[in-house]
Amino acid sequence: MDSICALSIIVNLIRIKKLWKDLFILWGWTSFDDIKNCKEEYEGKYNALNYQKEKNMNQYLYYRNLLDNYKTYEKYIKYHKEQWALKGFARKRYEKQHAIELRNYDMYRKILKSFIRGEDKRILPKEWQKPMDKFNDANTDVNSSLQKTVSVLAAIEVLQFNKRDLQRMIENENHKKNKELHLQKNSME
Question: Which of 9, 101, 111, 125 is the 20 to 30 Å CA partner of 31?
Fold first, then answer.
């Protein structure tokens, strides 16, 4: 049983040593302080990328909401245009026939304008579509950078866990040896 445990420790040591060596060479680490500094740096990058992703998503949702509301509003634009194209009695008759549509036009226009941020409350669906088109490219870039950052942080976490685990295993082995030596000493007396 002891030989299996010792063999397991040796195999883990060799595996950990190779992983350490590869990562130390790759990232130029020379100590655990370097790893800690690298982790802090990548956590900062992770937070910045996460913030950027959230900002992009909020902007996307804003324009998506505007375009969705515009689709509802757009159905009633033709009634408004037709109303203003008519004059006199024909206009009054048209307003009576399409009273609901004209009220909906005003209501949906007011709702849409309430969603538009900033001073300029103009309704510009083509301008709103441009950021939506750019979103996929920006999101792909952020996601790939985020993926690389997360993999580095995961590697650092694994190394730190393996270091703690190895220290625990060595302490257990030392404790076991000391216990065996103590038992041998007591049995000799």
Answer: 9
Domain map (residue ranges) of the chain: 34-188
Backbone angles phi, psi at 185, to 5 degrees: -60, -45
10 Å CB burial of residue 20 (0-12, 13-18, 19+) is middle
Each residue's pLDDT tens digit, 62-110: 999 999 999 999 999 999 999 999 999 999 999 999 999 999 999 999 9
Over 70: is that where the pLDDT of 13 sits? Answer: no
Question: What whole-number distance in Å separates Cα of residue 122 and Cα of residue 89?
Answer: 31
pTM of this prediction? 0.65
